[in-house]
Design a protein that fits this description.
GO molecular function: hydro-lyase activity
Family: Belongs to the enoyl-CoA hydratase/isomerase family.
Helix content: 40-55%
Keywords: Lyase
Strand content: 15-25%
Pfam families: ECH_1 (PF00378)
Strand order of the largest sheet: 1-2-3-4-5-7-9-12
Distance between the termini: 27 Å
Structural class: alpha/beta
Largest sheet: 8 strands, mixed
Radius of gyration: 19 Å
GO cellular component, one term: mitochondrion
Number of helices: 11
Order of helices and strands: EEEEHEEHHEEHEEHHEHEHHHH
Number of strands: 12
Bound molecules: coenzyme A
Length: 312
C-alpha cells in the first residue's frame, strides 16, 4: 500500500492543533508568505484578503467552517497571469494551514465568467522556458488545490475555459448555472491543456468524451456538462452559488474529521488496485476510532438529538 502523507495540524488562527484537521499541500513553487489582513466583519461573514486578485472570505456563526475563495480580476475575465497564480498559491496554502476550515467554495466575483484560463496577453511576452515554468507552477498549484484535505466546490456562472476549467476540475464538486460554457480550447492555440486537464477530464467524464472535448476544443453548455458528469448540478442562471452553499452547509454539519478521511480514502483508493484501496479505507477508518466525534455521533443518535461535532 502506498504511504499516506503525514497528517499535520497547524492553524494560524487557533493555537490548538488537531492531528486530522489539515494537510499541507505540496508547494513546489516558492510563494510569498500569505498576507492576511482582516478588512471587515459583518453578521455571518468575516472577510479576509490576500494580496492580489484572489480573496478569501470566512463565513461565521452557523456557517463557520465554510471558506469562500473568490477570483476577482474583472479586467481580464479572471485570466490567470503571474499575479493571479501567486494569489491562488497563497490562498490555497492559507486554507491548507487553517484547521478551522471544513469546506471551500471556489467562485468568481466577476459576472458571467468563472475564469478565462491562462492570461494569453502575458503569455505572448514569455519565452518558451518562462511558459514551461509558468505551466508547471499552474499544474502544481491545481494539484495543491486538489490535495486540500477538505472538500472543495467550484461554482461556475459563465465561462470556464482552459485553465479556468482545469481549476474547476481540481475541485471535488462542481455546480454551474445554465448559461455557463465549458471548453478546453488549447489545441486551437497549438498547445495542450497543461494544468492537469488531460488527466483530470478523462477521469471525470471518461476517456472518449474527454478526447472529443480536447481534440475539438468544443464549447459545451451547462446542460451538456451535467449530462456528461462534468458538473454535479446545473441550476438556473444565477443560482449556482446558492446551490453550492447548500451543499457546503450539508457537508459542514457532518463530522469534520470523517469528511477529511472520506476524501482521503476516495482519492487514495482510486489511484491504486482494489486490495490497496481497501487498505487505504481501513487506515482512514482507523483514524476515526478514537475520536470524540465518533462517540458524540452515537450519543446523539441514542438521545435523538443533533450531534455537535468538535473536530476532535
Ligand atoms: N487572457 C488575457 N486576457 C483575456 C483573456 C485571457 N485568457 N480572456 C479575456 N481576456 C481579456 C480580453 O482580451 C479583453 O481585454 P480588452 O478589454 O483589453 O480587449 C477583456 O478580457 C474582456 O474580454 P472580452 O472577450 O471582451 O469579454 P467577453 O465577455 O466578450 O468574453 C470570454 C469573455 C472569457 C468568453 C472571452 O474573453 C474568451 O473567450 N477569452 C479567451 C479564453 C481562452 O481562449 N482561454 C484559453 C486559454 S488556453
Amino acid at each position: 500500500m502506498r504511504g499516506f502523507p503525514a497528517l499535520i495540524g497547524r492553524s494560524i488562527f487557533r493555537s490548538s492543533s488537531h492531528d486530522l484537521r489539515s494537510t499541507h499541500p505540496t508547494a513546489t513553487v516558492a510563494a510569498a508568505p500569505p498576507l492576511l489582513r482582516r478588512i471587515g466583519s459583518r453578521r455571518g461573514l468575516i472577510i479576509q484578503t490576500l494580496s492580489g486578485p484572489v480573496r478569501i472570505e470566512r463565513l461565521s456563526d452557523s456557517d463557520s467552517g465554510i471558506i469562500e475563495l473568490k477570483l476577482d480580476r474583472p479586467e481580464a475575465k479572471n485570466a490567470i497571469g503571474k499575479e493571479m497564480l501567486r494569489g491562488l498559491q497563497n490562498a490555497i496554502e492559507t486554507i491548507g494551514n487553517d484547521s478551522s476550515a471544513n469546506v471551500v467554495v471556489v467562485s468568481s466575483s466577476v459576472p458571467k465568467v468563472f475564469c478565462a484560463g491562462a492570461d494569453l496577453k502575458e503569455r505572448k511576452l514569455m519565452s518558451a522556458s518562462e511558459v514551461q515554468q509558468f505551466v508547471n507552477s499552474l499544474r502544481s498549484t491545481f494539484s495543491s488545490l486538489e490535495a486540500l484535505s477538505v472538500p472543495t466546490v467550484a461554482v461556475i456562472e459563465g465561462a470556464a475555459l482552459g485553465g479556468g476549467l482545469e481549476m474547476a476540475l481540481s475541485c471535488d464538486l462542481r455546480v454551474c448555472g445554465e448559461e455557463s460554457t465549458f471548453s478546453l480550447p488549447e489545441t486551437g492555440l497549438a498547445i495542450i491543456p497543461g494544468a492537469g486537464g488531460t488527466q483530470r477530464l478523462p477521469r471525470i467524464v471518461g476517456r472518449s468524451a474527454a478526447k472529443e472535448l480536447i481534440f475539438t476544443g468544443r464549447r459545451i453548455s451547462g446542460k451538456e456538462a451535467v449530462s456528461m458528469g462534468l458538473v454535479n448540478y446545473c441550476v438556473p442562471a444565477g443560482e449556482a452559488h446558492h446551490k453550492a452553499l447548500q451543499i457546503a452547509r450539508d457537508i459542514n454539519q457532518k463530522g469534520p474529521l470523517a469528511i477529511r478521511m472520506a476524501k482521503q480514502a476516495i482519492n487514495k483508493g482510486l489511484e491504486v488496485d482494489m486490495p490497496s484501496a481497501l487498505d487505504a479505507e481501513e487506515e482512514c477508518y482507523d483514524q476515526l476510532l478514537e475520536t470524540q466525534d465518533r462517540l458524540e455521533g452515537l450519543a446523539a443518535f441514542a438521545e435523538k438529538r443533533k450531534p455537535s461535532y468538535l473536530g476532535k
